[in-house]
Design a protein that fits this description.
Blueprint (H helix, E strand, L loop, with lengths): L2 H8 E2 L18 E2 L5 H18 L5 H10 L4 E5 L5 H6 L9 H10 L8 E7 L4 H21 L3 E2 L2 E5 L5 H8 L4 E7 L10 E7 L10 E7 L6 H18 L10 H5 L1
Parallel strand pairs: 3-6, 4-5, 4-6, 4-7
Antiparallel strand pairs: 1-2, 7-8, 8-9
Helix pairs in contact: 6-8
């Protein structure tokens, strides 16, 4: 038998191969003898490299600031207590709190307190700055007009380097916000190195934990679309302000109520 034909004979197509058209998950890889085909091994290594790159990616602060300014949003550039990526990964606690300079900056920029509901929006790199760089502004371009239509007061957006979800609580507390929305890069997967997560917290303050937040996950063109994410986020914000709760006390019933 010809060498090429022999190699082809050894490659067994997975009977579930047709399902690959419906998911980016690593299924129906086939096999060559008792091993995975070389093409799939190389694809896995490439996906793993993209995931590692996402973890070490940097927030594009200046381009994001310019894009947010075009949307009419003033911007604070902030930093957590984690000095660099190594410390961020080794010390999660430092990624949850602002450094002294950022605290002073926010306290110096505080506007007079009013009784009107105020929304703080935070963009933090998290575990994939790539996700924030790619998806945060397109999402906000869909969300901001919805919030403006109901006359919600928007506080300056905060861009946070080396930040984790909980850092939004401290920022919003310093800004005297009623509710905080944190857009953050999620932990990269082998098929999703640029997935954006959204966390909503009512009456944010330092010390809150995850049961106090609502989460929208996997915002990206291959996952939850910008428009769908903006609509869901808008609904959650309105319900959170109406009921004065978030997290486990706020159930996502948008589809049930609109059905």
């Amino acid at each position: 038998m010809h060498k090429h034909n022999l190699q082809q004979a050894l490659i067994h197509t997975d009977p579930w191969a047709s399902l690959r058209a419906f998911t980016a998950a690593r299924i129906a890889l086939g096999r060559t003898g008792t091993a995975i085909p070389l093409q799939e091994v190389l694809s896995f290594r490439m996906a793993h490299a993209h995931a590692r790159d996402a973890v070490y990616s940097l927030l594009q602060v200046e381009p994001l600031t310019q894009q947010l300014t075009v949307l009419g949003l003033p911007v604070n550039q902030l930093h957590s207590q984690a000095a660099d990526r190594h410390e961020y990964l080794q010390r999660p606690d430092k990624g949850r709190r602002l450094n002294e300079g950022s605290v002073a900056q926010l306290m110096g920029n505080n506007s007079p307190y009013t009784s009107d509901a105020a929304i703080a929006i935070i963009l933090a790199d998290g575990l994939s700055a790539t996700a924030v760089n790619h998806h945060a502004v397109p999402l906000l371009s869909q969300l901001i007009p919805l919030l403006q239509n109901i006359n919600l007061r928007l506080l300056p957006v905060s861009l946070v380097q080396q930040g984790r979800v909980a850092i939004g609580d401290e920022i919003a507390m310093l800004q005297q916000a009623t509710l905080v929305v944190v857009l953050i890069g999620e932990r990269p997967g082998l098929s999703s190195p640029d997935s954006l997560g959204i966390y909503i917290t009512y009456q944010p303050r330092v010390g809150l934990t995850d049961e106090a937040r609502n989460c929208i996950s996997n915002v990206r063109p291959e996952g939850l679309s910008y428009q769908a994410a903006a609509d869901k986020l808008y609904w959650l914000i309105r319900e959170s302000l109406r009921l004065r709760v978030s997290g486990v006390e706020l159930k996502d019933q948008e589809g049930l109520l609109n059905g």
